[in-house]
C-alpha cells in the first residue's frame, strides 16, 4: 500500500465564474421565458376575447373575428411546422431557437402595439 497526498490550489476570479456561469444562466432563463411565452400564447385569448368584443375595447372586433382569433394560432402552427423543419435542418437547432425567439418577440410587440385586428391576426 502506498500513501499519496495531493495538494490542490484552485484560483478562481470573478471573470472565471461569469465566463462559465453567465452563459448557462442566460440559456436557462431564455428557455424558461420561451416556455412561459408558449403558455401565454395559448391562454392569451381566454381573457382577451371578451374584452375585444366588448364596447370598452379600443379595437372593434366582431364575434366572428374573435372565433378566428382562436383558430389563427392553430393555422399558424400548421403552416409554421414545415418552416421550422426547414430552418432546423438548414441552420441548426440553436440558431433556429434564436430565430424563433425573435419572431415570438415581434409577435408579442405586434399584439401589444397593434391598433387593428389585422396586426393581431398576423401576430397569432
How would you characterize this protein structure?
This protein is mostly helical. The protein has one domain (35-123). The chain contains five helices and no strands. Helix 3 runs antiparallel to helix 4, helix 3 (63-91) runs parallel beside helix 5 and helix 4 (93-113) runs antiparallel to helix 5. The termini are far apart. The mean pLDDT is 84.
Task: List the keywords.
single chain; 124 residues; mainly alpha
Question: Proportion of β residues?
Answer: under 5%
Question: What's the domain count?
Answer: 1
Tally of DSSP helical segments: 5
Helix coverage percent: over 70%
Task: Outline the biggest β-sheet.
Answer: none
Q: What spatial form do the alpha-carbon principal axes imply?
A: elongated
Global Rg: 23 Å
Count of strand segments: 0
Round the mean pLDDT to the nearest integer and report it. Answer: 84
The run of helices and strands is HHHHH
Low-pLDDT windows of residues: none
Structural class, judged by helices and strands?
A: mainly alpha
Please report the distance between the alpha carbons of the first and last residues. Answer: 71 Å
Topology:
Layout lengths: L13 H30 L1 H8 L10 H29 L1 H21 L3 H7 L1
Task: Give a brief rundown of this model.
With about 120 residues, this protein is mostly helical. It is about 75% helix and about 0% strand. It has one domain (about 35-124).
Amino acid at each position: 500500500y502506498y500513501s499519496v497526498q495531493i495538494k490542490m490550489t484552485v484560483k478562481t476570479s470573478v471573470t472565471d465564474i461569469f465566463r462559465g456561469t453567465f452563459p448557462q444562466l442566460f440559456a436557462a432563463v431564455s428557455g424558461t421565458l420561451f416556455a412561459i411565452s408558449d403558455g401565454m400564447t395559448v391562454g392569451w385569448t381566454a381573457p382577451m376575447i371578451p374584452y375585444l368584443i366588448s364596447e370598452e375595447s379600443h379595437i372593434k372586433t366582431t364575434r366572428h373575428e374573435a372565433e378566428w382569433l382562436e383558430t389563427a394560432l392553430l393555422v399558424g402552427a400548421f403552416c409554421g411546422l414545415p418552416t421550422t423543419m426547414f430552418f432546423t435542418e438548414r441552420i441548426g437547432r440553436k440558431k433556429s431557437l434564436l430565430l424563433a425567439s425573435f419572431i415570438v418577440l415581434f409577435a408579442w410587440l405586434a399584439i401589444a402595439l397593434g391598433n387593428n385586428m389585422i396586426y393581431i391576426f398576423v401576430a397569432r
